[in-house]
Amino acid sequence: MSNDIDYRSVTCQASPNIALIKYWGKRNEELILPDNDSLSITLDLNDMHSYTTVSTSSSMICDTFYFDDIQQTKLSERMKKVLQEVRRRAKDNKIKFVEIRSHNSFPASSGLASSASAYASLAIALTNLFQLDNPQSTAAYLARIGSGSAIRSIYGGFVRWSSENECLSSCIYPAEHWSELRIIILIFNSSKKPVSSTDAMQRTRETSTLFQARLSTINDKINKLIEAIKIKDFNTFAKITMMDSSQFHAVCMDTYPPVIYLNDQSKHLIDLVHVYNQMDGNQIIKVAYTFDAGPNPFCFIRQEHVDEFLSLLKYFYPTMNDDVHKHVSNVNEKFSSINLPIMSNVLERIVLTKIGTGPKIIS
Amino acid sequence: MSNDIDYRSVTCQASPNIALIKYWGKRNEELILPDNDSLSITLDLNDMHSYTTVSTSSSMICDTFYFDDIQQTKLSERMKKVLQEVRRRAKDNKIKFVEIRSHNSFPASSGLASSASAYASLAIALTNLFQLDNPQSTAAYLARIGSGSAIRSIYGGFVRWSSENECLSSCIYPAEHWSELRIIILIFNSSKKPVSSTDAMQRTRETSTLFQARLSTINDKINKLIEAIKIKDFNTFAKITMMDSSQFHAVCMDTYPPVIYLNDQSKHLIDLVHVYNQMDGNQIIKVAYTFDAGPNPFCFIRQEHVDEFLSLLKYFYPTMNDDVHKHVSNVNEKFSSINLPIMSNVLERIVLTKIGTGPKIIS
C-alpha cells in the first residue's frame, strides 16, 4: 500500500484508565451519554498501552481491521459507527477506505479492559489522519461512541468525563501534579466470565431501586475528590475512592437478577486493606482499592508505602510462581498479627504502574 | 428445687424465622426500635426450635442460666435486660430469682441464628410464669429487647414487625394460609466468621449513602408482598423476596468499610436459581432465595417443585457425604444444559422445612 501516491498513515498510543468515580448507566445508548460524571486516572503509557495505526489510500477497496497483525473478518458495529462519524466530519469527500492495525502491550489477563485504550488511540489516530476540526473534542467524541469510558483515555493525568452538555472529557490535573502516586493492580486467577458491562448497566438502570440515590451522590463526591487531589490529601482521596467502588458494586448487587463482580479473593483484599490501614492506629490511610466490573483490585498508594505493601501482598498471597513477588526481597513478620487467612496461589500477577501523561502520536 | 412449696415452672418452644423483608438498622439501640418494618416466615417447630424452661422459687439465691444443661458463669447483658423488664412489670413483688434452662433442637451449623427462637421462647415462658399483663404484646416487647428479630418468632405464619408506634409484631397470615410453601436451607461449608450484625447495621446507618433510599422503598414492598401472599402469587412473592435480599446486601456493601456476607457459593446459587427459573421459558418462578447476614441461602418453593429442585442441587453440588442428598433418588440430566460450573463438596447440609404455626407452651 505504501507505494500508493496518496497513501497516508498515523499511529497513536493510548493507555487504559482506572475510574475513581465509576461510570454506570447510559441515558442515551446510541451516543453513549452517561447518567453521571465520572473521574479517572490515566495510566502510564510505558507500562501499558494500545498501539493503533490507521492508514488510507485511494487504492483501498474496503475498510480492514488487523488485530495483532491478524486480519479480522469484519469490523465491529462500534468500529463502523466510529468510521461513519469520521466520514461525516471529514471535509475531504474523497476519503474512501481505512485500514486499522491495533495491538495491546498488555495481555487480556491484566485485568484491564483494553477497549478504552484501543478506542482512544483509534479516535486520535483517525482525527489526525483526516485532520478533522476541533481535534481534541472530535477525538473525545469518537472515542466515546466507540467505547464510553475510552473518552477518559484521551487525556493524561486526572480526567473528568462530564454527563452534561456535550458529554466530553477534560484533564483536571496533569500527571505531574501528584507524581508520587502509584497504582498496583492485582490479578487474581479466576476463570469466571464477567457479565457484559453494557448489559449489566442497562439492567441496573431498569431494576435497581438504589440507582437514583447513587446518582444524587455523585457530584458532591466528585467535587470533594477534586479538592482532595488538588491539595494531595491522600486520606480523603482514598476514602472517597473506596466508597465509590463499594457503592458501584452495591447498585450492581441491587440489580435484578443481581450482578456480582467481586469474589472471595476481592473480599479478602478489601478486608486486608482495611486491617492494614488501621494497623498503626494513626488514622493514616496507606492504601485504597477500587474494583471495576471484575474481581481484580486496583490499589492506589504513595511511593513511600509501596515496598511495605508489596511485602504485605507477598505475606498473604504466597505463590509458587516466583515472578509474582519479584519486587519483594523479604517478608515482614509484623503482618503475622493480622487475623486473616493466608491465601496461597490465588495471585497470578502484580502490575506496578503510575499516572500517565496521556496519548502520544508516533511519527 | 421442685420440693419448694412455691416452685413454679413454664416451658416454651419457639422456632426461628426467616425475613422476606429484612430488618437492618436500629433507631434506638437500647429499646431495639427498628428503622424499617420487616416481614418474615416463622419456621415449623417440628423441624427446629429452641426449648426454654424458666422457673422460680423463694429458695433461689440468684438468677441462673443453663445452656444445653451446662450452667453459664453469667447471664448475658441482654438476658439481664429482659429479666429487669420482667421484674418491673410483675405485680408480684416477691419475685426474687429465676432459673433459665435452654437448648436448641438444631445445631449452630444450620445457618440459622438461634437468638430469635431462644429469646422468643424465653419471653413467652417468662410472661406466662409471672402472668404478666397483655401477654402477647408483653412477650413481644421482651423478645425484642432481647434480640430484635426474636419479636417475629412470637407468632407463627407470616409476621410483620412494625417500626411505628410501639414497634410490636403481628401475624399477617397464619401458616395454614399457604401450606404448600416449603423452605429449603442450604448450608455451605465456610469457616468465615460473620461480622456481628449489631455492629454492621450500626456502621451501615452511619456510612451508607444508599441506606435512606432503601428505607424509602420498604413500605411499598411490604404492601405488595402482603398482597402477593394474600392471593398466593408466588411469582410476585419470589421476586420481591429476592430483590429485598439483594438490596439488603447492597447497603451492606455500601457500608464503610464494606460488609460482605455473600461468598462465591452464594453467588453461584443466585446464578443457578435465575438460570433454573428461566429454563422452561414460561416466566414461572419456581424458586426464590434470600440471604441473611451470612452466606447460606434460604430458598422458598412450592411443594410441587421440591423434588426437581433437590435434584438440581444434587447435580450442581455433588458431595461425598451421602446424607446431604438423601431425599434425591436420581439426577435429572436435563440440568446438563445449564452453563454453570459444578461445585463439588461445598454443600454440607440441606434442611427441608415449612411454615410453622408459632410457639407452644408445654405443660
From TrEMBL, chains A, B:
Domain (Mvd1 C-terminal) ranges: 183-362
Pathway connected to this protein: Steroid biosynthesis; cholesterol biosynthesis
One protein family per Pfam: MDD_C
Catalytic activity field: (R)-5-diphosphomevalonate + ATP = isopentenyl diphosphate + ADP + phosphate + CO2
GO aspect biological process, one term: cholesterol biosynthetic process
Entry's Gene Ontology molecular function annotations: ATP binding; diphosphomevalonate decarboxylase activity
GO cellular component: cytosol
Keywords: ATP-binding, Cholesterol biosynthesis, Cholesterol metabolism, Lipid biosynthesis, Lipid metabolism, Lyase, Nucleotide-binding, Steroid biosynthesis, Steroid metabolism, Sterol biosynthesis, Sterol metabolism
EC code: 4.1.1.33
Domain called Diphosphomevalonate decarboxylase-like N-terminal: residue spans: 14-166
Function statement: Catalyzes the ATP dependent decarboxylation of (R)-5-diphosphomevalonate to form isopentenyl diphosphate (IPP). Functions in the mevalonate (MVA) pathway leading to isopentenyl diphosphate (IPP), a key precursor for the biosynthesis of isoprenoids and sterol synthesis.
Family listed: Belongs to the diphosphomevalonate decarboxylase family.
Protein name according to UniProt: Diphosphomevalonate decarboxylase
Organism, scientific name: Rotaria sordida
